Amino acid sequence: MVNPVNAGQVSEEGAENLLLSPSHPVDSNNDGVVDVGQAQITSFPPLNAPQAVKDAWTAATKGLSQEDVLRSSVSFIGISPSLSGRVDPTLSKESSPNFDWTSYVDQLQKSNDLNRPLNSPQTSDLIASILSKFKSELQSRGVA
Questions:
Q1: pTM of the full predicted structure?
Q2: Low-confidence ranges of the chain (pLDDT < 50)
Q3: Residue 26's domain spans which residues?
Q4: Are 62 and 130 found together in one domain?
């Protein structure tokens, strides 16, 4: 059974996304999280990331199964680019046009290396491969 939506508990963005096509959500408050009703959805790269970043991600993951893309990208959401390894609760920085994507990918690579004992060798290798391709694609598009 689905509970009715309580309009007083839904953000403006959450209400807007209930009215839009699910294939075209918006992140109107640019926090890196898409509100749909009361649900909060994250994605990698964030919805408001520069188009060159989205294109680099698409190229880096071309030919991979949706399962592999999802499995790897979920590990990238919320990793702080400060090299501290702490989880950042928002993705708003990644949506900024001045965000340093190269340093962020370097941090993700270090995080993957640190987490290698916690993952299967196949998962760690998949993530490493995607990150290497992603970094190369970012550089080929002039994204810092």
A1: 0.78
A2: 79-90
A3: 7-41
A4: yes
